[in-house]
Amino acid sequence: MNVSGSFRLVSASDLGLSAGEAETVAGFLVSPAGARVALKVKSADLLGAVTALPAAIVIVVFVDGSPAVDDSMIRGMVESFGELGVHALIRPVAATEAVKRIRSGLVAESIDRATLNPLRAPEIVDRWALEQALEGVDGDSFVNPTQLVASSGGVVRVADG
Is the previous residue joined to 122 through a cis bond, with omega within 30 degrees of 0? Predict the structure, then answer.
């Protein structure tokens, strides 16, 4: 699912964060809500939005408006993010659909779903790691912030819980 121009800045209080956290945390609401795939946005739009943030903002939170995400989840993930020393933090969601490895047009094997977790919002990302990951990315491509940070060498961790 590709989303271009359909994300907007939201305040830290909209995310259920305290006034102190509002000084260093910014959030983006990405549509549509509750997507069953990882959120993806046009890289040029994302770069523009992130670089326009005040310099004091060091953490970027991506949410999708899903009813499965509440303020306490976001608050807990932001608190954990600061303690973990990682570049991105994602919410674990168990894979529920069958996954098969295909070779030469034939099902070669079943993949153990217990080891798979699709990306789901909220995604907590280090602002500077994201800006660095966006450098040199084709502006017309669609990217997932967390995947982009991981592919550029950033450390991504799954949140506890």
Answer: yes
